[in-house]
Model the fold of this input.
Amino acid sequence: MAAAIHEKEHVPAPDGWTKTFTDPRLCAAIVDRLTFNGTIIETGTDSYRLASTRARAEESAKAG
Done:
């Protein structure tokens, strides 16, 4: 099965993919194929997604 994702299409973040692809190995394989040979663009700014994820992790650690 071959598929292409148009560069302007919205692809949900990998952390939400397990809701669609319930098999973790399949999910990891799909993410691997999509990100292989990808280009990372360094903007020199802090990632708000990373900061948000870290804040949620800290809140979970304090609550749990």
User: Anything to note?
Assistant: The chain has one domain: 16-63. The chain has a mean pLDDT of 77. Helices lie at 17-20, 24-35, 48-63. The CA atoms of residues 44 and 50 lie 14 Å apart.
